[in-house]
Amino acid sequence: MKSLGSLEQLSEALRRLPGVGPKSALRMTYHLLQHDREGAELIGRAMLSALNMVHNCSLCNTFTENETCELCLNQERERSMLCVVESPSDQLMIEQTMTYKGLYFVLMGRLSPLDGVGPQHIHLEKLVRRATDGQVREVVLATNFNNEGEATAHYISETLKARGLLVSRLARGVPVGGELEYVDPGTIARAMLDRRVT
Amino acid sequence: MKSLGSLEQLSEALRRLPGVGPKSALRMTYHLLQHDREGAELIGRAMLSALNMVHNCSLCNTFTENETCELCLNQERERSMLCVVESPSDQLMIEQTMTYKGLYFVLMGRLSPLDGVGPQHIHLEKLVRRATDGQVREVVLATNFNNEGEATAHYISETLKARGLLVSRLARGVPVGGELEYVDPGTIARAMLDRRVT
Ligand SMILES: [Zn+2]
Ligand SMILES: [Zn+2]
């Protein structure tokens, strides 16, 4: 059986999705082409459109379609507090607890030397610029409580304390080894209230 | 936090992929937009290109970029035998056993009344036209050996025998409940040799 150019290219491309191996990629390809061509068109167009429209907020680094995101522009947020999270999902979890009224910085990753993710990959220079704007007084570290998140928090803490900033960490109400995205808001709320200076 | 149009649209679209729920769709979206924009562009372009190029073979119903696929056009294949499979993956498995020299018909599905998949969804009219071309003498049913595959084989067998065709079924060398894609080629080869008239 000869290979089919376009079909195989699609199957190969789908393997770029996290968690998708060769078998699932092929199954997805067959499914879309035979049973959901409308879905395939939606995905194709949404992908290229998002690439074109979405980039990182100039201040907090989260995804936005504008130069600066709405949360950063919201004048009701306390500009003296900056909460550092790994991802937009983590930020959303914290927002849902209603315990935090400051601003955010989204790393879009975490230190992971074994995977080759160093300080330059988690926008630390941008964070330092942001945290030393003269308005920020306290930086709350809300990275995950697993090994990589703890290492990231430690590294950022040292970097920012060296610049004279007050740095705190969510209290260990969050279970050790836990990832924020899967913790209930009540636990996160308690951890926010119990945050401690590092 | 306000919703982001393009990002949310992409996340929604990715849920059209089989096996992808809201959490994975969001994780895929974040990953592509932050860490693999090249991959995102590959997927978007491959998706739209495949939609444009790939359709079903006029004879065997498998995916092809031409009117008729290369296997159907291959004059070295026996034109008196037609093997019916559920998917291109199953066809590929049979080809790898080197025990079959005839042609194929790919259903691109299987009967599944509980999921609303009836005879009209698995191209049965096209199969009947194909099998009654005057050249086909034997139809080998190689649908899976689970409940849906067996029901599909039974239905096709009755339909084609009513038109005077010789219909056979792969021998039960394939484990009961097994799916062809996951069976070793040796077992499939034995089942092909032991196929029995139904
Ligand atoms: Zn922002
Ligand atoms: Zn064909």
TrEMBL record, chains A, B:
A zinc finger (C4-type) spans 57-72. One of its GO terms (molecular function) is DNA binding. GO terms for biological process: DNA recombination; DNA repair. Residues 80-175 form the Toprim domain. Keywords: DNA damage, DNA recombination, DNA repair, Metal-binding, Zinc, Zinc-finger. It comes from the Bacteria. Pfam families: RecR_C, RecR_HhH, RecR_ZnF, Toprim_4. InterPro entries: DNA_Rcmb_RecR (IPR000093), Rcmb_RecR (IPR023627), Rcmb_RecR_Znf (IPR015967), TOPRIM_dom (IPR006171), TOPRIM_RecR (IPR034137). May play a role in DNA repair. It seems to be involved in an RecBC-independent recombinational process of DNA repair. It may act with RecF and RecO. Belongs to the RecR family. This is Recombination protein RecR. It comes from Undibacterium fentianense. The gene is recR.
